[in-house]
Amino acid sequence: MSDSSERLSERLREQVAALHEPADQSAALGGEAQRRVVQQLVAEASRLKRRRRQRVWLGSGAGALLLAAAAMLAYLRTSAPASQPMAAARAVPAVEMPCRLPAVTDTALAAETLALGELGELVTQPDTQVHVESSQPCELVLRLRSGTLAGDLHNLRPARLLIRTDHGEVIVTGTRFSVHSDAELEVLLDTGVVDVQLQGAGTLRLTPRTRLHKGQRAALSSDDARRLDGWLKPAPHAPPPPAPENRPLFESSSAALMAAEASRRAGRSASAREAYRFASGSKDGNAEVALLRWARFELEQAAPATALRLVADHKRRFARGVLGADARFIEVQAHKALGHSARAEQAARTLMQRYPDTPQSAAARKLIEAK
Q1: Cα distances (angstroms) measured from residue 336 to each of 97, 308, 340
Q2: Which of 90, 297, 312, 360 could form a disulfide with 329 if both were Cys (CB 3.0 to 4.6 A apart)?
């Protein structure tokens, strides 16, 4: 093949390639422009034919390339219009995930545990003041005035939970966490991520195993993790599962109380709780004793939140019981263990007012004075 033939052959390849492989897909040639390119190729081939008189070459090499160009033109005419960018033709419409938050009312929130179906649950602690500001499928807004709200939530996205406090806002999209608002704001985060917008400050993003207190972030301690576990455990006073053949677990409340104390001394926590639960559910005089011994046992097990639940149960069931001073002192100790200084002091003052001449009152006074 001559030099001129090689140049034409190379030029033809480049021009034909430009018909169907443009560098910018959004600028692909339209039908009229494609016809002009092919006409130019044909004219150039004819001029070379006249110059070199090489009919054999023209009928074989250049002719085959021109036929290929014509075939490519016919193919391009049947494809998508060049005015539509290639990326747009392949675009897949985005699928929006629906928001799935159920409707929540203040009445439902007043219960100790608020189940949100497959999304998880929220748990309020005793004496917590919280109400619903807004409940929509994509956003649940709660106002936490005081107390502790804990939650074990799965992925809420694209929805979110917004908890408003006097100190700032906590934004949750799915995690295991707790928010406490009193004199200060405290957020405990076990898993997931939450954003905290503090008053007069920017947004803080908390990562897993983090504690936020007084605007400072720190690693979640083992005590923090136990507190969170205590809040998110099932209610301890839930009825036990039925025993085989419907036999009672113990012959009497006295037997259950003795078994609970023996299990406690032996370090068998699960057995002790089961026996305390049985004895505290009885209708005789052992019930109040068993309930408060159970609460004190939970304090020993570093579960002050559970102890507070039991004290709240005592207030409800034994408002005129003979062990009121003991119950109030356990309440003081539990708040102290949870780091709720203001609540501990308030519980201590209530104890000293109602039971002024008791050892529990004196002990409570020493406990809050030692802060």
Answers
A1: 44, 11, 6
A2: 360
